Amino acid sequence: MTPGYLINLIRDLILKIANRDRRKKHVNYPYMITNVVPCFHLKNWAAIIFNSLSSIMLAIGIIILRPHIVVISTPPIESVLGAYLGAKCSKSMIIIDIRDPSEDYLLKRSSGITKLILALLKKTNIMIYRKSNITITVTKSLSRYLMRYGIKALPILNGADTRKFKPLPKELARKYLNIPQDSFVLVYAGLIGIYYKLDTILYALRDLGSHLLKKVRLLILGSGPDVEALMTTIHKLNLKENVTYLGIVNDIKKLILTLSASDIGLIPIIADPILDFALPVKLYEYIACGLPILATTSSNSELAKFIEKHKIGLICEPQDKECLTNALKNMLENKINLIGLKRNTSKLRGAIDRRHEVKKLYMLIKSYT
User: For the whole prediction, is pTM greater than 0.85?
Assistant: First the structure.
């Protein structure tokens, strides 16, 4: 199994099946293979080749374990071939989980040898997607998009584990993290760079003016190719007192504590029509912890439509610093509107529980076995 959103969802599903098997007296204990493939960020052709070859490690692991079902979640796109070869050799059922059309996104931003290698990788992956037993996506619009390549994908929506992701008392969370109680706290958790750009958020913070900026704290969790550039921008804009970079947080309790200490969850997606199909999992984790959303995304995107439909946040077009500054001012100064957004977010918790999707996936797999 390669890394991705469905890791946690599939874990729930595997435990459900394992519990059923125990009752039937023939237990097949589940194996989880996650984050075992060494890889580099996709900056050049050499990284692509290295990552693709390293996925053979994944194939070896699958062949040794010989699981009944292999779930290949993409991106990363370079791990698909290794996981597929391992699954075929093990005669496993293959489920492909496509979270976004990364092959198309990367091809648009590459040239020369890198573009040629990516084109070959895309062709290989599309063949694999077509040959899988089941292919699923995170949105209906992405499912329709994949039809142009002859890929029949069924939408299984994202979600959060609302049993784990639930808001803790804000006062206690802020006390534990040493955050002043009267602060206005923004949080971003996830990949830094590629699809997500925080620089526009930083410039919007600078433009708030000193009287509002002194109340604001921005907490950043995660890693990615733009971390160094992000830290440079923070120093350049003199925001060291307002922005705290917490690095990679693998402890889910600390993640939930950080989200609970916050007022707003950020989703700063870059401008690209290919990304309009996605609903990032961080959206659901923010909602599960009671956070309204401030997002930069196209008004035609799935994310914008979701936020507007449920009235859980504010939206700006990517790179629109003025809109972001005004949105932050609105949230800082208009407490009544912010309370309304939080109320709507809390009402949505039950609907985004990923256990609903576990049941759908379970029935889908059952129909194929």
Answer: no
